[in-house]
Design brief:
Layout: E1 2-8, H1 16-26, E2 32-38, H2 45-52, E3 54-59, E4 73-74, H3 76-81, E5 86-90, E6 93-97, H4 100-108, E7 117-121, H5 125-136, E8 140-144, H6 157-161, E9 165-168, E10 194-197, H7 206-213, E11 217-219, H8 222-236
Parallel strand pairs: 1-2, 1-3, 4-6, 7-8, 7-9, 9-10, 10-11
Antiparallel strand pairs: 3-5, 5-6
């Protein structure tokens, strides 16, 4: 039996376990299982991997950045963005990868049209992947977080008018706190705006609901998660290291 899992805090309502369990049943994969591991601290990771004989892991909030010191090697793109969401265990040596980049780019690009400017909400591990993709696509962006010059309270009409895309890279609005939402001046949005939420549960967050009410195009993070999950599976079952 090959053991895989998700590490984060919290993980009880995460996408990955349900997805991989369904995938294994559908494809008749009887040699693998997937579990959730809620870690209080990322320092628990090495012991967790040994105790559960884990062949591979997905990493979610809040450990996509802090996991790196516990890995033996990381991919070039993971080094560049300083974020890892997939680990492969090869004979006790841990290799780190980032599949969020592929997941976001493939799900986002068809929506792009001629949009060239964006606001990114949040600056954590997931945000690093989104920033990488926007740079690759030559999309100018501004960051909004507690640690940046531009904060929610000083977003103006000029700020909103100057962007075409708003991407939520925070967990705000995800289950079970579904009544929460990023504090934006939603009334200033219009049909030129695309709102993309990395949250997938619920499928339509308050962030997306308010955007839709103001004629914005919207998309949640479910397709991105499917793509990145499949890429994780490819990594675990290939010679990639």
């Amino acid at each position: 039996m090959r053991n895989f899992g998700l590490v984060g805090n919290p993980v009880s309502h995460s996408f990955s376990k349900k997805y991989f369990t369904g995938k294994f049943l559908k494809e008749g994969i009887t040699y693998a299982c997937y579990k959730n591991f809620n870690l209080k601290d990322i320092s628990e990771l090495p012991e967790l991997i040994k105790e559960n004989n884990l062949s591979g892991l997905n990493i979610t909030i809040p450990y996509k950045e802090s996991v790196i010191p516990f890995l033996d090697e990381i991919s070039d793109v993971s080094k560049e963005i300083r974020a890892v969401n997939t680990i492969k265990n090869i004979n006790g040596k841990l290799f780190g990868f980032n599949t969020d980049i592929l997941g976001f780019e493939k799900s986002f690009f068809p929506l792009l049209q001629n949009k060239k400017t964006a606001l990114i909400l949040g600056n954590g591990g997931s945000s690093k992947a989104i920033q990488f993709v926007l740079n690759k696509l030559n999309i100018n962006f501004q960051l909004i977080s507690r640690n940046t010059k531009l904060d929610y309270h000083n977003i103006t009409k000029e700020t909103i008018d100057s962007v075409d895309i708003i991407i939520n890279c925070t967990p705000v609005g995800s289950y079970p706190k579904t009544n929460e939402y990023p504090k934006l001046p939603y009334s200033l949005l219009n049909s030129k705006h695309l709102l993309y939420d990395l949250v997938y549960n619920p499928k339509r967050t308050k962030f997306l609901t308010f955007g839709l009410a103001n004629n914005c195009s919207i998309k949640n993070g479910e397709e991105m998660l499917v793509i990145q999950a499949e890429e994780s599976w490819n990594i675990w079952n290939s010679d990639i290291r």
